[in-house]
Amino acid sequence: MSDVRRTDAVLLLVALVWGSSYLSAQTATAALPVLLVLFARYALSALACLGVVAARRRGSRRWTRDELRAGVPLGLTQAAVLVVETYGVAHTSAANAGLIISLTIVLTPLLDRGGRRGALPVSFFAATGVCVLAVGLLMSGNGFHAPRLGDLLMLGAALVRAAHVALVGRFTTGRAIRPLHLTTVQTLVGTALFLPVAAPGLPTLVRTDPATWAQLVYLALFCSVFAFLAQTWAVQRTSASRASLLLGTEPVWAVAVGTAVGGDHLTLLTGLGAALMVAGTYWGQAVERAHRSTPGPLPPPPHPLGKDSACPTAPTTPPVGTTPAGTTPTTI
C-alpha cells in the first residue's frame, strides 16, 4: 500500500470511529454531567498514553521543547472542541450532530494557509453554500422553526474544530514531533482543565453502571487516543485541508449509527439536508484537491546580467561609421 493510500485509510478509519462517537457521547451524557464525562474521557486517555510511552523500548521517552510548545495550545483547542461538541450532542440527535460537524470540511481550507496556491476558486464557495443550505434543512427537523440549541452548538464546534485542525498542521508540519508524545500532552492538558470542575462529581463517576463505563472507555481509547494519534500522524504526511476533507465520511457513519442503533429518524427535510451535506462536502473536497495540486506560476528567470544590473540600451544615433547603411540600431 502506498503512503498516500495508507494515510487516507487511517483517516477514513478515524471518520468511522468519530461517526460512532456521537451516539456514545449522547448515551454517556444521559447518565452523567457533560463535564464529568469529559474529565473521565481525558483522564482515561492520559493514563493510556502515559502507559504506552512508558512501555516503549525504542527512542527517548522525554518530551522535546517542540512537543510541549505544540501540545499545550493544541490541548486547549482540542478541549474547546470537545466541550462545545459534547454539549451540542447532548441537545440534538446523534445523526444531526455528525452531519453539522462535517462543516469542518469546508471551513478548514478557509483557515489553513499551508500549501495554498492563491485564493480558492468560486466553485469552492458554491460547495460551501450547498453545505450551509444543508445545515438549514437539518435544523428544520419536521418543519422550519428556530434552530435548536444543540444544532447551534454543533455549528460552533465545527468552526472550533476547523481552527484546531489548521493549527495541528501549522504546529507539527516540518518539525520532529512524535504523535504519541504530542497526544499525551494534549490529554494531560485536558485532564488538568476538567479536574477542578469535575472533582465534586467523582463519587458519582465511581458508582456509575458498567454500560456507561463502557461508553467512557470507548470514547477515551478509540475516539480520543487512537483518533488524536491517527489525526496527528496523518496531518504530518498530508495537508490539514486534505486531512479534514478525507474525514468527510464521518457524517455518513454518524447517520448510519444514529438510525440503526440510536433510533434516530430522518424526515424528508432532514434526509434532503443529509444528502446535500454529503454532496457539498465531497464537491468541496474535489475542488480543494484540484486547486492544491495545480502547479503555481513559475518565478521569473534571473536576469543574465545580474539582479542589480540595468539593461543597457544602444544609442539611438550610433557614431558615424559604426552602423552599416540601411540598418536600424537595436536595443539589447
Describe what this molecule looks like in 3D:
- The protein is mostly helical and 332 residues long.
- It is built from 13 helices and no strands.
- Helix 1 crosses helix 4, helix 2 runs antiparallel to helix 8 and helix 7 packs across helix 11.
Structure described in brief:
The protein has 332 residues and is mostly helical. The protein has helices at residues 3-31, 34-55, 65-89, 94-100, 104-111, 122-140, 149-172, 179-198, 202-206, 210-235, 240-246, 250-260, 268-293.
Question: Radius of gyration in whole Å, from Cα?
Answer: 27 Å
Give the SSE string.
HHHHHHHHHHHHH
* Unreliable segments of 5+ consecutive residues: 305-332
Helix coverage percent: 55-70%
Q: How many angstroms does the end-to-end distance come to?
A: 56 Å
In percent terms, what proportion of residues is strand?
under 5%
Main sheet properties:
none
Query: Looking at the structure, what is the overall shape?
Result: globular
Q: Tally of extended strands?
A: 0
What is the tally of helical segments?
13
Produce the secondary structure layout.
Elements: H1 3-31, H2 34-55, H3 65-89, H4 94-100, H5 104-111, H6 122-140, H7 149-172, H8 179-198, H9 202-206, H10 210-235, H11 240-246, H12 250-260, H13 268-293
Helix pairs in contact: 1-4, 1-10, 1-12, 2-8, 2-10, 3-7, 3-8, 4-12, 5-7, 5-11, 6-13, 7-11, 8-10, 11-13
Descriptive tags:
disordered C terminus; 332 residues; mainly alpha; single chain; 0% strand
